[in-house]
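Hey, I was hoping to borrow your eyes for a little while. I've dropped the whole record in just underneath, so have a look:

——
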Amino acid sequence: MTATASPVSRPSPHVPPEPDVVRRRGRPAINAAHAVPEQRVLDAAFAAFAALGYEGTTVRELAKQLGVSHNLLNVRFGSKADLWRRAVDARVARFGSPVFAAFDEQALDDEARLRLVVERFCGWTADNPDFVGIAYAEGRRETWRLDYLVDAYIRPFKQQLDALFESVAASHPMRRVSSTAFMVMLVQGAGFYFAARPMLEKIGEDWERDPGQTQRKVRELADFLLAGLLGGNG
């Protein structure tokens, strides 16, 4: 391997304590919505949208889960559509920047940058298995949410991947597979592998409990995909 990929960055393990909120029996405190950290709300919203879909997710149920008033949640985060956008943006900004940054690693040659992009993307799917749920829920029909995902994130990534494919192919034999098909393998292949861990455990996949297990699986999947892609014309 030409370059060693660094894993997708993770948030600092230090999380400031949440302020105490005085609760009255039967209803959230009036300042409860502001007492819940924004990142916690956005994480919970993203997980709900991924698991239940946009239509299946309600602000009322999300507020109940967080222990806040849904009216106050609306005031703080806007409409459900606004909350969906903010949850998606926050998730990509929090974990996705190292993937996009791999395209700009000028110290590496084209093949090494491709390897770095693939390894970091596989690492990102391991850290964000619920993104597979968002992609599956929104990728099958025409909605404003699909347009948002494509315009803001998917098309820019594909354009950079297309350019990198072209550069690598100029000096290295590559399989005839479109960047679109390869992206599907990354998200629905590597991504689903981590998202479907409970199912895989039931059919015998051995998930060790040591901290390095996930990164080893990330490298194995990335190496497999790269071997297929760079194995020559066929």
Observations:
- The chain has twelve helices and no strands.
